[in-house]
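Task: sequence design from structure.
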């Protein structure tokens, strides 16, 4: 059977990803959410002309041409502090001591930084001429009242939380988070801490890995744990899919006799859009829809396949539901540091690799262990190197596309 190319699979998926409806949250709970409204400035920012430096507010004419040899001599008549009382007016021959952020006193038009001055009692010597208006932050130079600062679709990071507070917002409209069920299937699976009773049992990593990946993508995961390869039990669990925006299973989607998921999902109303792709690993990945734009993903059991299927299909789905426009992981071009060879070139391969920045370019080194049961290759990597269909060999120095899954050293 022909396998479906990745682009075709993605085109089916992209059609189904819609931002979830908006809800109002406190700004302290807005981290990782995406704006469902434009946010405008509540006032001019800054709201008043203020000092950019600690120093003295003066009239430019009084310090014009001042120098080390011929300092301007002024009298200090008061102080302007941030959050303090209204400072006295500055008239010719006078100066007001001023602190960063304090309002510029009436009459003053220039701030002389403290390092260009000398003070003796209430006498100020200014030893340098500055431009008129120097060191003054003007009202509205950052933002004008009513100006849009953050647009719909903008991701709220710590910086944006700070901006929302600065704009005097206590709450903000964001898209709802998807609620995501995670279920691992397989008779051989053991929960963490559960004792091994048969040598054929293996420790399940997938349900914990996918749960955490869902959480780090910004969605709300729900842990359904481990289920045996039992059609009745599986069917009961799958029937709860209507309670979630996304339902994820791992295992049981391949060609084995106990791989029931592909048949059972149809019984609970999933319209299967793709199953079996021309990619390596994660070939048997299954995707379908149910209800109103709800998404079902049947991931293969091998942990590396699971991780890659998550990054290729589920992460973009979550990001799209959260309201983001840029839904895919960052891709960049890197130079291969050693030759790469493979026997079968039919599928597009996502080879775990380490990308580093060195000598002004990104370098890529594929992991030596590339089989799909070796999760160590994922935790020891920060990227997937893309090896296109039809490519058997890449020479040292070849340029390759990589998808980043971690920071670059
Ligand atoms: P399956 O997709 O069910 O045929 O499983 C493929 C391989 O992945 C088998 O070697 C399974 O033992 C392994 N596997 C399945 N589920 C998990 C899991 N939750 N955690 C770790 N390995 C798994
Ligand atoms: Mg299985």
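Answer:
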């Amino acid at each position: 059977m022909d396998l479906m190319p990745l682009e075709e699979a993605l085109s089916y998926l992209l059609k189904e990803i819609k931002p979830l409806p908006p809800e109002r949250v406190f700004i302290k709970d807005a981290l990782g959410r995406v704006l469902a409204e434009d946010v405008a400035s509540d006032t001019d920012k800054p709201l008043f002309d203020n000092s950019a430096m600690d120093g003295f507010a003066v009239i430019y004419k009084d310090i014009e041409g001042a120098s080390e040899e011929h300092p301007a001599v002024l009298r200090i008549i008061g102080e302007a502090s941030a959050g303090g009382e209204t400072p006295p007016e500055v008239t010719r021959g006078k100066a007001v001591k001023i602190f960063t952020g304090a309002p510029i006193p009436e009459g003053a038009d220039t701030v002389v930084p403290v390092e260009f001055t000398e003070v003796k009692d209430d006498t100020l010597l200014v030893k340098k001429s500055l431009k008129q208006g120097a060191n003054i932050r003007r009202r509205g130079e950052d933002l004008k009242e009513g100006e849009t600062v953050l647009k719909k679709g903008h991701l709220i990071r710590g910086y944006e939380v700070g901006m929302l507070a600065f704009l005097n917002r206590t709450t903000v409209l964001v898209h709802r988070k998807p609620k995501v069920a995670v279920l691992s299937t397989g008779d051989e699976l053991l929960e963490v801490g559960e004792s091994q009773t048969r040598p054929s049992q293996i420790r399940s990593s997938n349900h914990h890995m996918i749960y955490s990946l869902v959480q780090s993508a910004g969605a709300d995961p729900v842990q359904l744990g481990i289920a045996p390869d039992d059609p009745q039990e599986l069917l009961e669990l799958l029937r709860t899919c209507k309670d979630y925006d996304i339902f994820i299973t791992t295992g049981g989607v391949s060609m084995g006799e106990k791989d029931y998921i592909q048949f059972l999902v149809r019984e609970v109303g999933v319209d299967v859009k793709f199953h079996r792709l021309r990619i390596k690993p994660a070939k048997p990945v299954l995707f379908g829809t149910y209800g109103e734009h709800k998404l079902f993903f049947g991931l293969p059991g091998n942990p590396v396949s699971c991780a890659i299927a998550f990054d290729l299909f589920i992460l973009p789905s979550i990001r799209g539901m959260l309201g983001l426009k840029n839904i895919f992981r960052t891709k960049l071009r890197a130079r291969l540091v050693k030759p790469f060879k493979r026997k079968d070139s039919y599928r597009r391969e996502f080879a775990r690799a380490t990308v580093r920045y060195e000598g002004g370019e990104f370098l890529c080194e594929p992991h030596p262990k590339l089989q799909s049961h070796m999760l160590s290759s994922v935790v020891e990597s920060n990227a997937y190197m893309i090896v296109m269909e039809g490519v058997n060999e890449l020479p040292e120095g070849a340029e390759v596309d990589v998808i980043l899954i971690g920071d670059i050293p």
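The pocket of adenosine monophosphate (ligand 1) is lined by residues 184, 186, 188-189, 202, 204-207, 250-252, 254, 256, 300-303, 373 (CB under 6 Å).
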